[in-house]
Amino acid sequence: MRHGTRHADGVPAELEAALRGGPFHIALRAAIAARGLPLQRVQHHLSRYGVKVGVTSLSYWQQGARRPQRPESLRAVRALEEILQLPDESLIRLLTRAEERPEQHRPAGRSYRSLVEASGVLEGLLAELESPLDGGLHTIGHHERVRIGARRELLARESQHIVRAHKDGVDRYVAIHRGDPGCAPERVAVHALENCRPGRVRWHHDTGVLVAELLFDTRLRTGDTFLFSYGFEDGTAGTSSEYVRGFHFAGGQYALQVRFDEEALPMRCHRFTQHSFAAPRSGRQELTLSGRHRSVHLVEPRVRSGLVGIAWDWE
């Protein structure tokens, strides 16, 4: 369904440069931003062209994690050129260029977690539970223990949380689990271990994201502190190579311990930090496995907004 050639008159300079030089995902993101369309509206427009593409796929395309390749996806790209009022073949041409030089456009390793954030999946799941990001609680201390299994998979993780309420009436906490690629969140078990009980659980299969309510047996008043523990039993995904914790707000102490099965010990481990998913990693520091307990750990005395994590190499 084409309606003649369009011209780039009035196209913002940033978009015009992206269409000229690429890569595809940068141009697509700039075009969507220039038209001010949320991805749900883009998806709706595509459906009017008889093309079915999920919001998550659109997000993946504009983040550079995946490229449209199937015939249906290429039809969607041609429709996008019209929906976004772009010159004919402008996006298709960038895709062709990427195929000729794929090594220059392959996404950086381990972009999965950034896709989760970018796709809006987490925000949508939290909205279903009517939960804001901070939930009325500030973290004073958080000790997290991650176990890696004999198949090199993320087997389970447990958290002990100490929080302080900054408003009256808080009676729950929403815990977030992001599985590794291939995770089946519907098979992940949620355990309320101490001073809480399980509430509603929501998940998104394609991204492996699960959110779970943990209900307190009391309503906190402003200034009250509370200690509770919970865990997730996973083991549904493939090889795990890192564990990352994101912080939307600065706060208290965070400690992360990763323990490995004796049948699957990594060659090297290191800690790192990031200001955001898009920022380069910094603060790299090698970590040495403890002998008998086969674990490494990090401690952040006072966390800042951003990310902190531990990564490891198997070979």
Automatic annotation (TrEMBL):
The lineage of its organism: Bacteria, Bacillati, Actinomycetota, Actinomycetes, Kitasatosporales. This is XRE family transcriptional regulator. It comes from the Bacteria.
